[in-house]
Design goal:
alpha+beta; seven-stranded antiparallel beta sheet; Transposase; hydrolase; transposition; DNA recombination; endonuclease
């Protein structure tokens, strides 16, 4: 075992939600408005001189703007830093020939500003681990009466004790869609095992199968989304019967749904990491889904159909990847994110790209080389090959059907664990 300092993010619920939600709403709206001001400024500078301002230039330019003082100065800096990074990513794609890449958009939903995440750096918060409280600084424009902070009482998971963490670097206030929660970004020292091996596995996240895995030594696994779909429909019906979406009953239902989803993510990520240890995998390659909600052509939200939109927009892609990454770190496994562009269209055996090869949602047939595969497994293998192109067993074992007949693991509600499909009783 070796010691390693890593970054961890711990989520916490806010116990005095009703008392602080209005103040947090004001900060979330303020962050969106500042983003939009910065977005307009970047666009104007780009149109006039063909230059995208970096973080320091943007901060210098806007530090005297009235919207800048809606937040603590470090929180405002973080909003503009995220904007500059988003523009930098877009410009890098354009420079590399990706003319379909879209610049970051404005943060608006219809005519309203959405609640953006607000980040508080060390000077913007004061943590009291004895009483599980944190003071979050407000900007000069939002201070009321004598108070210049929001006092949040929080509750972490039972296995998380922030008093044992020496360095809490940031606190983030995040709107989950139902309520606000806190996320503490910390530096912690952990025991790290030696890497299990040098093999790779590709992971494709989709709207039907939550995860498809393609291993280097020619076998594959599927993790269907059935459990979360059932929860979505069950809780949607229960919430529809509530008289008020803000009622105590609705709040309890939303919290229970969120808790079940978080448990699912933790269980799945832990299971996948354990499978990687068993298979001597040292590198997990996962698709970067940061742009999955946007259409490549016009930048608008994709329409995946009634049920597809329900599934897609209720996922926490980043959250799952984050859980997978920190669980993998403790086992000495590296997680790499790569672009998913064209991985669903290309044949993982011959490389030919053709839209018509994807015959239907779950079936991929290549007319060039005759490969028949599960479409999600084919995508996972393409993702894996972006990091480890050579696959000596692939051509030899293609005929045995590993691409077309993956093993299926389901979440067993009785045991709260994943198991092969034939062993699941619930």
């Amino acid at each position: 075992m070796a010691k390693q300092v890593v970054t961890r993010t711990y989520s916490a619920s806010i116990r005095n939600q009703s008392r602080v939600s209005d103040d947090l709403d004001a900060l979330g709206f303020a962050a969106s408005k500042l983003w939009n001001v910065g977005r307009w400024t970047c666009s104007r500078i780009w149109d006039e001189i063909g230059h995208i301002p970096n973080h320091n230039e943007l901060t210098t330019y806007l530090k005297n703007h009235e919207r800048y003082d809606d937040l603590h100065s470090q929180s405002s800096q973080r909003v503009l830093q995220e904007l500059a990074e988003a523009f930098g990513g877009w410009y890098g794609k354009r420079r590399n020939g990706d003319l379909r890449a879209n610049p970051p958009g404005y943060r608006k939903r219809n005519d309203e500003h959405p609640r953006s995440t607000v980040t508080f750096k060390t000077a913007g918060f004061k943590l009291d681990t004895q009483y599980n409280r944190v003071r979050l600084s407000q900007g000069p424009n939002l201070k009321e009466y004598w108070s210049d902070f929001i006092l949040c009482k929080f509750q972490t998971r039972p296995d998380v004790d922030l008093s044992t963490v020496e360095n809490v670097q940031q606190v983030k206030a995040v709107w989950t869609g139902d309520e606000w929660e806190l996320r503490f970004v910390c530096k912690v020292e952990i025991d790290v095992s030696e890497s299990p091996g040098e093999k790779t596995v590709g992971i494709d996240l989709g709207i039907n199968n939550f995860a498809a895995l393609a291993y280097e030594d020619a076998h594959s696994e599927l993790y269907p989304l059935n459990c979360l779909k059932q929860d979505d429909y069950y809780f949607s019906k229960r919430l529809a019967r509530c008289d008020d979406s803000n009622s105590e009953q609705a709040t309890r239902l939303n919290q229970k749904k969120s808790s079940r989803r978080t448990h699912y993510f933790h269980t799945l990520s832990k299971h996948i990491v354990q499978r990687c240890v068993e298979e001597d995998v040292g590198t997990i390659v996962i698709g970067d889904l940061s742009g999955i909600r946007k259409d490549d052509e016009d930048g608008e939200s994709k329409n995946w159909g009634k049920h597809g939109n329900l599934d897609l927009h209720s996922w926490a892609f980043d959250r799952f990847t984050e859980l997978l990454t920190y669980k993998a770190e403790t086992e000495g496994i590296t997680v790499e994110e790569v672009s998913e562009r064209n991985t669903s269209k290309s044949c993982s055996c011959c490389g030919r790209k053709r839209d018509a090869n994807r015959v239907e949602r779950g079936l991929y047939v290549c007319e060039e080389c005759g490969t028949t595969a599960n479409a999600d497994v084919n995508g996972a293998e393409n993702i894996r090959q972006k990091v480890s192109p050579s696959s000596p067993n692939l051509s030899v074992n293609r005929s045995n059907g590993w691409l077309a007949q993956p093993s299926t693991f389901l979440f067993d509600t009785e045991t709260s664990a994943f198991a092969p499909q034939e062993q699941v009783t619930s």
